[in-house]
Write a structure and sequence with these properties.
elongated, two-stranded antiparallel sheet, 7 helices, single chain, 326 residues, 37% strand, eight-stranded antiparallel barrel
Amino acid sequence: MYCKILEKLINFLLRIINLKEIYTMFTPKMLTQCKINLKLSIMIVIAVLCQTNSFALNGKVKSKLKEMSKLDFSLKKTELGLNVGLMGYIGDLKANLNPYNQSNLAVGFQVRNELNNYVAIRLCGSYGHIEADDAKAVISDLKKRNLSFRSSITDFGVIGEFSLPIRFDYRATDTGAKRYSKLVPYVYVGIQGFKFNPMAYYQGQWYELQPLHTEGKANAYNLMQISIPFGFGFKYRITNKISVAAEFGISQTFTDYLDDVSTTYQTYEAQKAENGQLSADISYRSDELPGRETSVIRKEGILRGSPKYNDFYLSNMLSFRYKLGK
């Protein structure tokens, strides 16, 4: 029964991050392979969890739930951490489930406090860059669109971390009375604010795209946004004061403009009249491709992106943590 509940939860999370809808942007071959990989991943997760004794519906589970509900904040349990890893993106310029093929270095920090053996809370922030280029797309129509961007991402937020009752390396204490695990899997979810600033390279110079209103002033957007970060990871305690953690996270945003692409084109004349010559030139790049200088007519209403789906960015981080107390 609990395996079915877990499967429903996973499907619910997938709907939240719009992965199923993003699949519709792929070719049939890509779509089939993505579905196969997704199903295999879900089956593996369910198989591991269902065969773990800690998930048996018995008195031990009730005892663990009771233990998890007791929260105790203490400065002695505060940890300071530094993060380093990769940041990637999936959106209108990246119809690809491998966000790290155009990834960039990301760094961050965290202040973490363990409220009990299963629950922790942390303040954290990170800085990195995301980018995408239609020239590297696998779909020919995206190559013809010929858009590209890069953007910095700076975020700060509060995250709840929940250790799973799964243990891989039980070890006896000096007295032998208790056992503990150095390697612990966990999941997390939180809320954060972030700032981004999409830019494009044009005629030897980088231009900020938001002030240019490349899809018209009616589609203006704010560079400060809110996102919901969530993911999973593994933490390993080296000593009583030092630990490391590796985690994979997704930040679901509420904007479709991380890449400055969402809706439709305006005509060249309308774009120029409303926002200037540079905006008209940089908003439409198909005519820069060889052989397409005069073959493509720019018409109002032609899709530039897909406004149905918001963008999100991903981070793969390795954290080094130091405990302040004994």
